Amino acid sequence: MKPTIHYDGRPQAGADDEAPYADALLRHAARRPVSFMVPGHGATGDGFAAGQAEFAGERALAIDVTQLLDGIDLGSDSPRERAHRMAARAWGARRTWFLTNGSSQGNRLAALAVSQLGDGIVIQRSAHSSVVDGVILAGLRPAYALPGVDVRNGIAHGVTPASIAKAIAGHPGPVTAVYIVSPSYFGAVADVPTIARLVHDAGAVLIVDCAWGAHFGFHPDLPPSPVRQGADIVVMSTHKMTSSLHQSAVLHLGDTDLADTLEPALERAYRMTTSTSESSLLIGSIDVARRDLQRGGPQVDDALRALGAARDRIRAEQGISLIEDTFFSHPDIVDHDPLRMPIDVSGICADAHALRLTLARDFGIWVEMATRTTLVPLVGIGKRTSFDRLIDAVLETRGDAAPNEIGDLADLPSPGRIQVSPRDAFYAPSEVVPHTEAVGRTSADALSAYPPGIPNILPGEEITRPAVDFLRQVARSPGGYVRGAVVPDVSRFRVIGKP
């Protein structure tokens, strides 16, 4: 394996202080070429494209070019290839692919790749829905590891090495791959190095959904990247916490003992999932984001100082507190992302979902998400947002509603028995039945209650009475939502048709 490279937060000097693909796009645009190629706007804001120029700007059109252009992405040492190599070096990967359909593409790609090695996979139960898509597409046969759950605040955290070991042992067949999430939506970080050793001892591939952690490892006060902690495949959304454009992401192949086997499988899966008309804007923005991560240490310092001051103020106020102060009471959490600052507002607010809407409507403040007790503001790396404005607005709403008297939801139901594989369930004839007739039937859909967002029923699983009752209770609760439900009140279910 290559030596581990540790970033110390200072700008990284040398050739990697460039963005070769983005620079090539700018050089191409500076020549003011006459285009008789796609895109149809012709790289100018003339004529019918005037509306696009008004919407996105002339410069965006000038660098929105087709693929396979000499001097941009053709050839073995093209600017595109150099950008990929620089990204791999920056994150410590054997190889890096740029993705223009988000981490969702990366999750499906990873599933298709590991299916070439076998069909047994263990999945963290709170994985993103695109993982289920990948399982269906690849014909994988999953078993599940349950994450730790903060039931009071409606938060799913991570998995422990013990829960992964139990899931591997309980899988009915050989396990080819294990899929975990770190960090969580709320910034909680799992024990990736220990899980990686355990997974490799079982002869399996470790896939880490690090969608929320593309910035990890680029500053000493940030958690390390799972790419350098033994993970074989790591998926990252560069648009979430770094500066690239929305829908851009990367997939890394770790420099592990399994890399030689995985690389051709990943390349084949990448070709199947990528567009033949990839967005040069998205690719260029990934290149720029990587460059700026490597040289942005001082800006991260400033953001972390501002966040530290905001944390001190929250801890001093009555009625609000920091969720992260409870993190280390959960055995699945070993670290957290300081750029995420979940705030428990239950002491001043009856429903944090309603407070989130109030902040947007009355104060012009947009917060990433909420549970019934918690607001989740996040800060892109290097940003110095006005935290005082957020805290002032939250406190100003005090008295608008009574504090939240937290009522217990029903216990999270255990998953039903797997009756058929997710792929077979997806392709089977289905019908929609009333909830009173769904119990005992096999689900054709994935249904997840928010909060806490853990899939309660997956395609191919038996629908149980506790699951039906839980999902309907969540749907009736303030701010409750069931993703994948046929109707919002979960009064009907899509099931596999009877023979």
List keywords for this structure.
499 residues, four-stranded antiparallel β-sheet, disordered N terminus
Strand fraction band? Answer: 5-15%
Low-confidence stretches: 1-15
**DSSP helix count?**
17
End-to-end CA span: 54 Å
Structural class call reads alpha+beta
General shape:
globular
The level of helicity is: 25-40%
DSSP, total strands: 20
Q: What is the averaged pLDDT score? A: 90
Radius of gyration: 24 Å
Give the spatial strand order of the biggest sheet: 1-10-9-8-6-2-3
- Largest sheet features: 7 strands, mixed
Question: Can you give a write-up of this model?
Answer:
This protein has 17 helices and 20 strands. The strands form 6 sheets. The protein has a 7-stranded mixed β-sheet, with helices on both faces. Strands 11-13-15-14 form a 4-stranded antiparallel β-sheet, covered by helices on one side. Strands 18-17-19 form a 3-stranded antiparallel β-sheet, covered by helices on one side. The longest helix has 20 residues, at 297-316. Strand 14 (369-370) and strand 15 (374-376) form a beta hairpin. 36% of the residues lie in helices and 15% in strands. The chain has 499 residues and is an alpha+beta fold.
